[in-house]
Amino acid sequence: MHCLCLPVIGFRAPSSSGATTLTPKSKKLNSSTSASYDLHDKKRVYARNGVREYLVALTYEARVVWFALREGEYEELLPDAEGILRSEVSPGLWLRPAALWQNDLTSLLAVLSAGLASAERRAFVQRLRAA
Predict the structure, then answer these.
(1) Most exposed among 35, 59, 120, 130, judged by the fewest C-beta atoms under 10 Å?
(2) Phi/psi at 14 (nearest 5 deg)?
(3) Total structural domains in the chain?
């Protein structure tokens, strides 16, 4: 079973004053590995290293699993009513998995473009620029 694992750029907020800072923390961009490794071993490594989100595209199952790190454990993000997965770490980063598996590039790019043009994305970019 093979898959594509994509850690989303994470942001850590550790500081001595307790203030939240947005500091980019990136990991490997992608790798083609076994699903078991990405869903278990890699998950532990990413959690230990503070990767706040990552997604796994399970090719044989035609499924995307997007994880968010909450209190040291990963929880699966669920799609909204429109079937769109939305990043909590990088607002405006949206994915419609069905479009990916149906090879519907038009829909895939439309959802991504809408997210990148969203008000939440603009606010996020402004916060990054101000940091």
Answers:
(1) 130
(2) -80, 130
(3) 1
Q: Which of 97, 95, 99, 129 is nearest to 115 (CA)?
A: 95
What's the whole-number average pLDDT of the chain?
Answer: 80
Rg of the chain taking only CA atoms, in angstroms: 15
Global pTM? 0.74
CA angle 81, 62, 51 (to 5 degrees): 75
Domain range for 65 is 2-130
Task: Map residue 23 onto helix, strand or coil.
Answer: strand
Of 77, 37, 83, 32, residue with least CA distance to 59: 32
- pLDDT tens digit string along 60-83? 889 999 999 999 899 999 999 999
